[in-house]
Amino acid sequence: MPASQATEEVAAPLPRIVSGYLSDYTSLVPGLIVVALLLVWAVHDGGYDADTWYWGALVMLGLLTAITVGRGVRSVRISRSGQVALLAFALYVAWSYLSISWAQSPGDALEGSNRALLYLLVFANMLMLPWTARSALIALLTFVIGVGVIALVLLVRLASADNVASLVIGGRLAAPTGYFNSTAALFTIEALTAIVLASRRELPGLLRGVLIGLACAGLQLSVIVQSRGWLFTLPLVALVVIVLVPDRLRVAAAAVIPVAATVGPIHRLLHVYQAGASEATLNHAAALAGHSALLLCGMAIVAATLIAWGESLLPARPPNPARRRLLGIVVVAATVAAVAVGGAAATHRHPVRFVVRQWDGFSHTQTASTGSHFTDVGSGRYDFWRVALDAFLAHPIGGLGQDNFDDYYMPRRRTSEEPAWTHSLELRLLAHTGLVGFVLFFTFLVAAIAAALRGRRHPTSEFARWVGAAALVPLIVWVIHGSVDWFWEIPALSGPALGFLAMAGALARPQVPALQGEDVRSTLRAHRALRRGALPVGGLAVLAAVVVLGFPYLSVREVSEASNLRARDPAQALSDLSTAADLNPLSSDPGRLGGTIALSTGDYANAQARFDQSIKREPGGWYAWLGAGLAASGLGERSVARHDYEVAASINKQEPVIRLALARIGTARPLSPTAALDQLSAELES
Question: How many other CB atoms are there within 10 angstroms of residue 536's CB atom?
Fold first, then answer.
């Protein structure tokens, strides 16, 4: 599509724009289903819970099947780089499933592999669709506006002091993903993508104004989160975005209003953390921050809309490549200078001393609480990364097995934390799936990015280049910020990053020339042969995916239902957990929860059997060994109980309940299961 034609279509009246987008239904309808799922995940704790993303994976599997059958194999056009990316990702997922065979916890490896399959399905769905610049734009707008509306709702709730304590934990915003850093990343993705989209004069003025207002809301909420990982990676993220996008000067200009609207009330946004000590002060600080933020968002919408309308009255100048390159260099240089000045200001003109202090706190896991979480020091990541690197060196080829880091970390930790994840995308790949998994996923990323950037070398239109660049913003945040955090496990972040990456690759695919004569006949014969071979293979693959996703999902649902029933109907809960254990013979969760319920009801023989089942499926889980020991103690089997306690202590040396149980096992008053469960519950609540 020529650039002039794209500009003409986007600048058309709104009814004509809508009708134009609807004409791209073959990509828009399935694409919007994917986007809708991403938004559902965003408001449901980031899609982190298995009973949320499992059904999403089944939806993605059904959608991929419908796309393949509906369009037919012949009509699917994927670039060579896209094919390499899809193959490398599929091989990574296959390797992940293979890691079940050597994982210490096969159930965790299966769940992690199924999550990887989910991301493969999201990527494949978006890659196979016949995206146009118009349909890709509406998909991006839907996602950005959807997340922006979530941001506005949160600001309204903060301003009205509506159950603020459920949104803000320890003075920091956790909603909607439930994890501070992923919330900051989600709203940063929304804000930066909105700014890139709002920079184009072809969009309607009111829409551009709304996008700027939503970007303000996203940045303001990111500040309230007070994520240090966000603060330190944001300059690099901004720099990569500004280098990647076309018309850097326009993007930088579009960012002025959101940045100003965030810097203006910065003291009120930061004060939410300082006031988090009591509910009354928290509500007051949140109301002040919310009111200021909403007011500035409204002002930003009005100002940006007026500017956009004013710009539309001016004649568009023909592009000057030399001037554009010069302005681009100026913008990049100004961005670097702004980052340097901001860094100097933030460190009180002593950046080296600041970095040394942060590194000392980071490596020694100390926390010095101040008036802002941004200036606190201390983190467990140094220890997480130390053990993750040790895991890779100990198992360099295949790693520990997908999602098997937690059991490896526990007996080797030097912190009091019990992380399930490595808090780094790169170390996750190395520790979980070894060098083979790392190379496969790195190959996927390189090929997928190459496919997405093809439009820069062989542009179909300036409009398509711009949409493709905007689609890469989620990936930039996901990779850079995710290098120091655990974002892979959050579908609300991994989904947009990988899904829109695929969309950018499909958008930049080369145009296939029309075939004629004998070429048509030979191509049809080849397609018929491919279809005859692909149909049975594809059918078997779909059936295998249904089984590998469906039965674990049913098991997860049974565990979730049993968790809800454990207090009012423990017998039914135990029955549901028996079903869950049968549905997923690798998972240790049903046995662990069932043993806990049986312990609380005094059914020690049943508890012992269920904890033994959990131990067989996950020998490295300290809680199941403790539970088995408590059950054995309740049955009077003190030697068995002592052995189980000693194994639990060898895994988790810091748990006080284990030490207490060991100390009292030889006395007249051994630790009772009820007292142990009460103390563990108190530890979780503290």
Answer: 9
